[in-house]
Amino acid sequence: MNEKQKVEDYVRAKYGITPLDAMMEIVVLAKQNGDQQLAHAAASSAAPYVHAKLKQVEIDDKREIRPAAEVESEIASLLAGFTRDAPPAAEGATRGAAQGAGERTPH
User: Fold this and answer.
1) What is the pLDDT of residues 9-45, one digit of tens each?
2) Cα–Cα distance measured from residue 40 to residue 30, given in angstroms and rounded to the nearest whole number
3) Which residues are CB-neighbours of 11 under 8 A, at least 6 positions away?
4) Is 55 helix (H, G, I), strand (E, B) or coil?
5) Which of 8, 50, 4 is nearest to 27 (CA)?
6) pTM for this predicted structure
7) CA distances from 90 to 75, 85, 95 (A)
8) Three-state secondary-structure class, residue 58
């Protein structure tokens, strides 16, 4: 049990109400009496008891950022290498077609 829970348990045992209960009661009474400003203030005070507090996180991003022209040039050079080194697909297809429609080749 954390310290906050211990305090809330003590207050509840001694007074029969928790800080959150008290703040929410103020919200309800203020709204009933048309005091929106007090209702808002009490609701804002109650929010940390109801909603988790987000922790600030620092992002340490060490990726290299390169100019678009440099990346495009690298992509073009890679693509040129693929087309230059690839086996000619059309040549293999032509050999199969030249054997004739009725002939079969073993696989």
Assistant:
1) 887 888 888 888 888 999 999 999 999 999 999 999 8
2) 9
3) 17, 18, 19
4) coil
5) 50
6) 0.41
7) 25, 14, 9
8) coil
